[in-house]
Amino acid sequence: MFEDLRKLSDREIQLVLRDVDAATLILALTTASEELTNRVLANMGNRAAMVVRDEVASLGSPPASEVEQAQQKMLHVYHTLAGSGPPER
C-alpha cells in the first residue's frame, strides 16, 4: 500500500526519490497523508520540497486512476530497489 512508504528509512526514501520523476511524485502525493508527504519532502532539498509542495497544492484533483498509477510506480521503484515485496515494518 502506498501509505506504507512512510515506514521507510530516510535512506530508502531518498533512493526512491532518485528514481522517480517529479511529475510522478507530484501526482502520487496529491492524495497522500500529511505524514507521508512530510516524510518525503523532508528527504528533499528545501527548494525542491517547496516546489513539489506548491505543485501538489495547485494540481487540484487529478483523475484517481492517474494518482493510483503514480503511486504504484513509486511502490514499484521501491520494490525493485529493495529486491523484495512490500515493506513490512
| SS summary, helix count | 5
Query: Residue-averaged pLDDT, rounded?
Result: 92
Strand content is: under 5%
Write the element-wise H/E pattern from the N-terminal end onward. Answer: HHHHH
> What is the C-alpha radius of gyration, as a whole number of Å?
12 Å
**Oligomerization state:** single chain
The backbone outline, from C-alpha atoms, is globular
Largest sheet: none
| Low-pLDDT residue spans | none
Class from secondary-structure proportions? mainly alpha
Tell me how many strands there are: 0
What percentage of residues falls in helices of 4 or more residues? Answer: 55-70%
Spatial gap, N to C terminus: 13 Å
Report on the structure:
It is built from 5 helices and no strands. α2 crosses α4 (46-59) and α2 (22-29) packs across α5. The chain is globular, with a radius of gyration of 12 Å. The mean pLDDT is 92. Helices cover 66% and strands 0% of the residues. It has helices spanning 10-18, 22-29, 34-42, 46-59, 64-82. It is mostly helical.
Draw up the topology in text.
Layout (H helix, E strand, L loop, with lengths): L9 H9 L3 H8 L4 H9 L3 H14 L4 H19 L7
Helix pairs in contact: 1-5, 2-4, 2-5
